[in-house]
Design a protein that fits this description.
single chain, alpha+beta, 3 domains, 14% strand
């Protein structure tokens, strides 16, 4: 008697047929461990090679790199045990030419709705996935409660969602850009932004205060790449609060103080702030 196809495997086959690379997730919603041949990345480990392509191992190894659109691979005996244990299906957004904005809480959703163009949305356990057309570098924690999942990353398949997929906006790409040098930037204190052009997303003063406090914490807890962390944090704050004119001298001073407590100079703080303003077109 023919055994029924496990539900996650059935979903995976349907997605693969539409060109979406898929992989099984085990309990804990994480990828399966590497096979014996690839244990401890003895084979070189596709993700370790920093190559955004599929894994050549016959088993579902190496996390996101196991994602495939080949039905013969999905139903292969080497994947059978994984599908029997799978609790859900994941997919490689970058491999499908997509970017998933993983919004983990209400504040992150408010930011997206007031900053980004509408696109397809999928409800998650704690928030929403916003799906855009176009691939980019993946990075977690680009804003409080916001992760970017695209190339060399996986996202859980939670359904097709609602809405039409829009093109990836520049504002999302800007969140992962590294700072560029600004040798002639002013060393004067930049001060608050005046005459904000956008709608204010701070329904209460607590929202802004929480964002500044989280930014300070992100900077002070950085154990490496402090320079890049400061820039990305400034970029995140300005992306959230830079267009409504709510940032004051006191808020900016708090961010600069946090950065200088990690060894950054006043000049670098000004340069990083200026670069973030330029990147966002403010």
């Amino acid at each position: 008697m023919t055994q029924p196809t496990p539900y996650p495997q059935h979903t995976a086959l349907s997605l693969a047929a539409s060109g979406v690379p898929v992989l099984p997730l085990r309990r804990g919603k994480v990828p399966f461990g590497n096979c014996t041949m690839c244990a401890d990345n003895a084979c070189g480990g596709r993700p370790n090679m920093k190559v955004p392509g599929p894994c050549r191992c016959p088993a579902p190894c190496h996390g996101w790199a196991a994602a495939t659109t080949e039905s013969a691979v999905i139903v292969a005996p080497t994947w059978a045990a994984a599908w029997r244990q799978a609790v859900c299906v994941a997919y490689h957004p970058g491999g499908a030419g997509l970017t998933v904005l993983d919004l983990d809480d209400a504040d992150a959703i408010v930011w997206a709705r007031t900053t980004l163009p509408a696109t397809r949305t999928v409800p998650t356990t704690r928030g929403e996935h916003w799906i855009y057309r176009g691939a980019m570098t993946s990075r977690n924690g680009v804003l409080p409660g916001v992760d970017i999942k695209s190339t060399m990353a996986y996202a859980r398949w939670l359904g097709s969602g609602t809405g039409t997929i829009a093109a990836l906006p520049d504002a999302v790409g800007a969140l992962v850009k590294e700072p560029s040098p600004a040798p002639r930037a002013s060393q004067t204190f930049p001060g608050p932004l005046r005459g904000g052009r956008g709608e204010c997303p701070h329904r209460t003063p607590v929202f802004l205060e929480r964002g500044i406090a989280m930014a300070e914490q992100r900077i002070t807890e950085a154990s490496s790449a402090v320079h890049a962390t400061v820039y990305r944090t400034f970029l995140a704050v300005l992306s959230m609060h830079g267009r409504c004119g709510c940032l004051t001298d006191t808020h900016v001073a708090r961010l600069f103080t946090a950065a200088q407590s990690k060894g950054e100079t006043a000049r670098h703080c000004t340069d990083a702030w200026t670069n973030a303003l330029t990147t966002l077109g403010l």
